[in-house]
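Good morning,

Attaching, inline, the backbone tokens for the sequence recovery test we're adding to the shared suite. The designed sequence is right after.
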């Protein structure tokens, strides 16, 4: 093997499901033909690869594998201070798994079925960003969430999805979802709905605004859909809420 080949960045895919390993291998090499994608079918093989092959720049590791779990590997990588970026892949939505992984400095937490665009973005970042690029600290994660919250509040009149935020702020949708649950205490959709309802309550205090106008200003193109969502959240329809608050403000 020549020196250039030895220095070529590599990607490791560790999962006890052969279909997932081969699927990611095909996906990555289709877009990055110059990369070598290695596989590991259990945790011990994964750890052996990581500690003996410094060319590995990023590893996609299943959270549950035979012999050594994905979380145990994350702990080993952090303890050994290996210059590799770890991405956990999992079929488990329990945030406890993600929280443990984040403590070990993983760069992302992808839920199965895996979004191919997330994989390609992470590979691109791993082979173009210096190996020792810092991962987000808890303070930085809070700043990311605050930045996203400000953007959401300024764009409530638009159709907003977690995927849109993922593309705009360059983090995977699953990672942002985990951050929202940790920092805000609710999922993103619940948070977005609450923002829309709170804004609607404020707008309903203006008697010159029609319900259809308010609906549009909080992201609903269909006034009926807005009324249903408002009623479900507040227990009364928006018209009744307006009348009730109007009576409260009468001297």
């Amino acid at each position: 093997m020549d020196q250039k080949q030895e220095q070529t960045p590599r990607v490791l895919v560790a999962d006890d499901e052969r279909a997932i390993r081969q699927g990611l291998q095909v996906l990555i090499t289709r877009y990055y033909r110059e990369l070598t994608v290695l596989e590991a079918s259990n945790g011990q093989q994964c750890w052996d690869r990581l500690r003996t092959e410094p060319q590995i720049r990023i590893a996609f590791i299943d959270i549950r594998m035979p012999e050594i779990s994905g979380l145990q590997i994350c702990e080993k990588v952090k303890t050994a201070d290996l210059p590799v970026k770890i991405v956990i892949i999992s079929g488990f939505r329990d945030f406890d798994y993600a929280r443990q992984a984040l403590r070990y400095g993983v760069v992302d937490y992808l839920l199965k079925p895996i979004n191919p665009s997330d994989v390609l973005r992470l590979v691109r970042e791993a082979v173009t960003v210096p190996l020792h690029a810092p991962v987000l600290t808890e303070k930085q994660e809070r700043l990311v969430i605050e930045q996203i919250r400000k953007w959401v509040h300024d764009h409530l009149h638009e159709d907003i999805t977690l995927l849109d935020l993922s593309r705009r702020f360059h983090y995977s949708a699953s990672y942002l979802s985990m951050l929202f649950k940790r920092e805000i205490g609710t999922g993103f959709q619940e948070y977005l709905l609450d923002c829309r309802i709170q804004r609607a309550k404020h707008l309903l205090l203006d008697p010159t605004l029609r319900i259809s106008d308010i609906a549009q200003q909080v992201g609903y193109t269909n006034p009926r859909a807005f009324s249903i969502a408002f009623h479900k959240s507040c227990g009364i329809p928006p018209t009744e809420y307006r009348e009730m608050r109007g009576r409260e403000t009468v001297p």
